[in-house]
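Student:
Attend to each token:
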Amino acid sequence: MRHKLLVSPDQTVRIKDLAQLVGPEEIVEQIGGIIIHKITIQDKTIVIIDLMKVLKTIRNRFPEVDIQPIGSSQTIVEVQYGKNSITGVYFIIVWMLLFIGAALAIMNFHEDVSMQEVHQKIYYLVTGHENAYPLLLQIPYSLGLGFGMVLFFNHIFKKRFNEEPSPLEVEMFNYQQDLDQYVILNENKENEKKAHDD
């Protein structure tokens, strides 16, 4: 079974969409074409299709076929109702909020650790002269801070520096895994409740 499947509204979900099938070609084609679910408005945005439902459907059509499932026992079917286009004004507003928020966070951190005084002391230790604005240290530090963030996130616009995922991408992946696990558990609880009520 595949972990996740993206579908459009009113799409018919077949076994070949949900799972990788291995076996004699003619049987694989017949099994792959079996319809498991038809997406409707009642499905909202997420449908969980369980392996047991798939196995029962195959058994009803092909009782003599030997089936050996491998991998996960559910597939998350996510219904995409059309992409929301982000307008230029909305993008600029969000970008400005993030930029100002990040700048304030950095400035507050520097104020908390007395970065100005640290630079003044380092400048005095290196040169032997006191300077209230040691730009010789502050400018390279500021450039290095920006360059370090670019390296940390491993992106500059759409260009990547290497194939290694950035910490942000790893965290987003972990969040998505946790979200998928929650959806599967929550959906199973709802299905059990419906079956108990019936």
Observations:
- The longest strand covers residues 74-79.
- Strands lie at 4-7, 12-14, 35-38, 46-50, 74-79, 155-156, 159-160.
- Residues 167-197 form the longest helix (31 residues).
- The two ends are 28 Å apart (CA to CA).
